[in-house]
């Protein structure tokens, strides 16, 4: 090949490359243009759909057939309806909750009562067993010994002193012209000691001014006149000059203590200095004794 042919061949290559580059550019541009057109088509569809929904909402707002002048009223009606339905449901739920609480309370009470019963039965059984054990054990022996010890020491003495402090009063009954003979008025059932002797009269003796009365301790088997004088120096009380009408007279007791002490079976008697000698006197005498 000569130099001329080589140069001609070289001059043809750049045009081929230019044409190829132009073809590639056209293809790429076409693809880009198609993509843009497709994207605009999709956006247009979405836009149209949104416009339609907006128009429907606007039409609904202005729909005179529904009687709604504004969308606010429509929304409020929907909210009120929802609120009413919610309130009804809340009331139903509240009622069911109340019923459930009542049922729970009833069941809890029944359970508590059953548990209390079981607890009481169990504890009563334990208590019974404990008592049985204690009664048959040293506790009972200790208690018995304590009682026996107390009965033989100062506690018994203190009790005896309290019993001895018990006093009784023996009234003679009516003393007048129909009851002025020597007679017994009381017999001791245990050991006693005279504490006081008191006379009381509504009227004194006027006619027989020397008539007097002595109180006697009369042992079993003695006659009244041989009994022991309870008044001082063996001086009886004069029912005329020794007493006053409607006024207590506390007589002076005999200073001999043994005369004042009664054994079981000793009797108390009235001893008149002159029997059947009272005409005006009306009264009685009361003897107070304490248990020894």
Helix/strand-derived category reads alpha+beta
- Named at the architecture level, the CATH assignment of the domain at 167-291 is Sandwich
**Rg over CA atoms:** 67 Å
Count of alpha/pi helices = 5
How much helix, percentage-wise, in residues?
40-55%
This entry's quaternary arrangement is single chain
Fold blueprint:
Layout: H1 3-61, H2 71-135, H3 138-151, H4 154-164, E1 167-171, E2 183-187, E3 192-203, E4 212-218, E5 228-229, E6 237-238, E7 249-250, H5 257-260, E8 261-262, E9 267-272, E10 282-291
Keywords:
single chain; 292 residues; alpha+beta; Jelly Rolls; five-stranded antiparallel β-sheet; 5 helices; 52% helix; rod-shaped
Kindly describe this structure.
By secondary structure, this protein is an alpha+beta fold. Among the domains are: 1-40; 167-291, Jelly Rolls (Sandwich). It has helices at 3-61, 71-135, 138-151, 154-164, 257-260, and strands at 167-171, 183-187, 192-203, 212-218, 228-229, 237-238, 249-250, 261-262, 267-272, 282-291. The strands form two sheets. Strands 1, 3, 7, 8 and 10 form a five-stranded antiparallel β-sheet that branches. Strands 2, 4, 5, 6 and 9 form a five-stranded antiparallel β-sheet that branches.
Short précis:
This protein has 292 residues and is α+β, with helices and mostly antiparallel strands. Helices cover 52% and strands 18% of the residues. Among the domains are: 1-40; 167-291, Jelly Rolls (Sandwich).
């Amino acid at each position: 090949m000569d130099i001329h042919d080589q140069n001609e061949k070289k001059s043809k290559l750049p045009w081929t490359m230019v044409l190829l580059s132009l073809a590639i550019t056209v293809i790429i541009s076409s693809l880009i243009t198609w993509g843009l057109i497709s994207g605009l088509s999709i956006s247009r569809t979405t836009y149209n759909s949104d416009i339609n929904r907006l128009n429907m909402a606007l039409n609904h707002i202005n729909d005179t057939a529904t009687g709604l002048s504004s969308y606010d009223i429509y929304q409020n009606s929907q909210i009120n309806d929802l609120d009413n339905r919610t309130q009804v449901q809340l009331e139903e739920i509240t009622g069911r909750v109340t019923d459930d609480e009542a049922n729970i309370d009833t069941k809890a009470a029944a359970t508590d009562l059953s548990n209390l019963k079981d607890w009481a039965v169990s504890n009563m059984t334990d208590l019974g067993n404990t008592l049985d054990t204690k009664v048959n054990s040293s506790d009972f022996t200790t208690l018995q010994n304590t009682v026996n010890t107390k009965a033989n020491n100062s506690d018994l003495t203190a009790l005896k002193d309290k019993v001895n402090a018990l006093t009784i009063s023996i009234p003679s009954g009516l003393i007048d012209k129909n009851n002025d003979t020597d007679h017994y008025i009381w017999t001791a059932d245990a050991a006693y000691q005279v504490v006081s002797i008191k006379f009381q009269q509504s009227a004194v003796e006027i006619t027989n001014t020397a008539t007097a009365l002595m109180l006697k301790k009369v042992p079993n088997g003695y006659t009244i006149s041989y009994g022991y004088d309870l008044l001082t120096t063996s001086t009886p009380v004069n029912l005329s000059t020794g007493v006053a009408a409607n006024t207590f007279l506390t007589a002076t007791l005999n200073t001999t203590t043994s005369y004042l002490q009664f054994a079981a079976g000793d009797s108390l008697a009235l001893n008149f200095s002159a029997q059947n000698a009272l005409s005006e006197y009306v009264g009685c005498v009361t003897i107070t004794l304490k248990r020894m």
